[in-house]
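Hi R.,

Here's the chain you asked about this morning:
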Amino acid sequence: MGGNGELKYEISQNAYIKLVLHSLRHKTAAVNGVLVGRISSKDEGLVEISDSVPLFHSNLALLPPLEISLIMIEEHYVAQGLSIVGYFHANERFEDVEISGVAKNIGDHISRYFPQAPILLLDNKKLEALSKGKDRSPVMQLCVKDASKNWRVVGTDGGSKLLLKEPSANVVLSDYISSEKWKDVTDFDDHLDDVTKDWLNPGLFN
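And the predicted structure, written out as tokens:
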């Protein structure tokens, strides 16, 4: 198998929506999260992202909380045969579609354990256009490491490399945005402030 540029990534509806709702809950801040999944048992060129965990909306670069969260997430999912397979980042500024230093550093950290790990970067313009159109492609840009180990945005074919498992995911996402479902998202920041708040968001899609 070749480099990461040849891999495809398929994200489940719940994993996808949870990350977008998290970014909407903290619109004026940079937020991040991790992708949980595994390499497909049927196709080793496909990474299946079955869940996601919203991480932080403040002090994204602080290492101790990040390390605590990654250990807790790995410990929870290992029994299901899943692990952390990538990183999600939403920049603070609406028009900013650059991969920040923080995003690269955390992406590098995760890729030490899962070399195929991508960074998914929120595209605010696509997200804003969601309510106006019927676009079925993800509101995220796919970023992978090139042969020189540098992060790059996968170009025009990115849409074919990052797939929504359920074609109706954007329709469901639009409904959740309309009903202000983003108010219900809990991240690790919330959990570290109040341990009764569950970072697994078990009731989010009930």
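The helical segments are 13-25, 63-77, 101-113, 124-129, 158-161, 169-178, 188-193.

Let me know if you need anything else.
M.
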